[in-house]
């Protein structure tokens, strides 16, 4: 073995800085890889634990709800959707902990597809829930209900048939065909973005999500301001105000969990040659799994204890 000084003597064209760079580059790469793994493991662990608790808690509450309500049907589908994603999370955790995929590329594509299906179906169910709430608020509809339970099942089945029977197999069959991927690696299908059709689809989804989010937020803020002006006294004690706050929570989940991924995705597509961006893209995608905590937040925010604590905190801040 030669020392660094001996190598330097035999290679007069090299500088000390270049030798140091050659030595530290692999360590720097491993450093970033470890940071990525730790962040991903933490995010998916939080999503799995919190999402599981929220799905169980919401399942008990759904028993007492009106089964013919369109809102209830949307929440039921949301519970099922989160549960399906949570079933795939342990496989992701195993991969990031052991740094080796042993379940085959077909299953890797299915797990990867489930993350995207979950994100866009959650977005869809949020929109449906918000529209129903707004129709009732503006008194265009007193309530929206199915005539029979069979109609609710049929509507839900239609959505799932499109997602699971059509979209998922198509995703598995077509995704991962543009590049060569190692069998022991997973969730690295970034080479697909070199295809112009895939780029166009991503641009379209980014524009749709960003536009709809802005419209939803603007309309919800308008409704909250309208409610605040209409209600006498302290708004914190009125049920109507809390109902709009709950609607705002749906939009907050979209802004916190879904919007960062789509906005960064735009930058990522335009700067694909920067390898470090793949790490940030994976982290932004993992944040979408945090949306599984929405059920837990809905259960907590709907409790009287939570509302009382919020009112007490507001009173203390007013006295300060």
Automatic annotation (TrEMBL):
Residues 51-298 form the G-protein coupled receptors family 1 profile domain. InterPro entries: GP183-like (IPR047160), GPCR_Rhodpsn (IPR000276), GPCR_Rhodpsn_7TM (IPR017452). It is found in: Cell membrane. GO terms for biological process: inflammatory response. Its main location: membrane. The gene is GPR141. It comes from the Eukaryota. GO terms for molecular function: G protein-coupled receptor activity; oxysterol binding. Keywords: Cell membrane, G-protein coupled receptor, Glycoprotein, Membrane, Receptor, Transducer, Transmembrane, Transmembrane helix. The chain crosses the membrane at residues 38-63, 75-97, 117-138, 150-172, 203-228, 248-268, 280-306. The keyword Plastid does not apply. Orphan receptor. Gene3D superfamilies: Rhodopsin 7-helix transmembrane proteins. This is Probable G-protein coupled receptor 141. It is a multi-pass membrane protein. Pfam families: 7tm_1 (PF00001). The lineage of its organism: Eukaryota, Metazoa, Chordata, Craniata, Vertebrata. GO terms for cellular component: plasma membrane. PROSITE patterns: G_PROTEIN_RECEP_F1_2 (PS50262).
């Amino acid at each position: 073995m030669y020392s660094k000084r001996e190598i330097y003597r035999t290679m007069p064209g090299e500088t000390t800085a270049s030798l140091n760079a050659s030595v530290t580059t692999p360590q720097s790469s491993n450093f970033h890889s470890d940071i990525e793994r730790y962040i991903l493991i933490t995010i998916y662990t939080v999503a799995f634990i919190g999402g599981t608790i929220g799905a169980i808690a919401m399942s008990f509450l759904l028993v007492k709800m009106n089964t013919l309500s369109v809102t209830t049907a949307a929440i039921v589908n949301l519970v099922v959707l989160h549960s399906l994603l949570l079933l795939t999370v342990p496989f992701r955790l195993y991969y990031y902990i052991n740094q080796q995929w042993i379940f085959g590329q077909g299953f890797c594509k299915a797990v990867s597809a489930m993350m995207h299906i979950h994100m866009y179906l959650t977005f869809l169910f949020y929109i449906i829930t918000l529209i129903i709430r707004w129709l009732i608020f503006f008194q265009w509809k007193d309530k929206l209900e199915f005539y029979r339970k069979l109609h609710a099942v049929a509507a839900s089945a239609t959505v799932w048939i499109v997602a699971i029977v059509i979209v998922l197999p198509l995703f598995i069959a077509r995704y991962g065909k543009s590049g060569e991927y190692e069998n022991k690696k997973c969730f690295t299908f970034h080479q697909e973005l070199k295809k112009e059709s895939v780029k166009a689809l991503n641009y379209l989804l980014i524009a749709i999500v960003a536009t709809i989010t802005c419209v939803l937020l603007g309309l919800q803020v308008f409704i909250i301001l309208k409610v605040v002006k209409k209600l006498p006294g302290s708004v914190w004690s009125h049920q109507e105000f809390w109902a709009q706050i709950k609607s705002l929570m749906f939009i907050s989940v979209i802004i916190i969990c879904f919007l960062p991924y789509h906005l960064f995705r735009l930058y990522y597509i335009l700067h694909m040659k920067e390898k470090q961006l793949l790490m940030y893209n994976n982290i932004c995608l993992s944040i979408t799994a945090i949306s599984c905590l929405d059920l837990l937040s809905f259960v907590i925010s709907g409790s009287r204890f939570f509302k009382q604590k919020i009112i007490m905190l507001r009173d203390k801040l007013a006295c300060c």
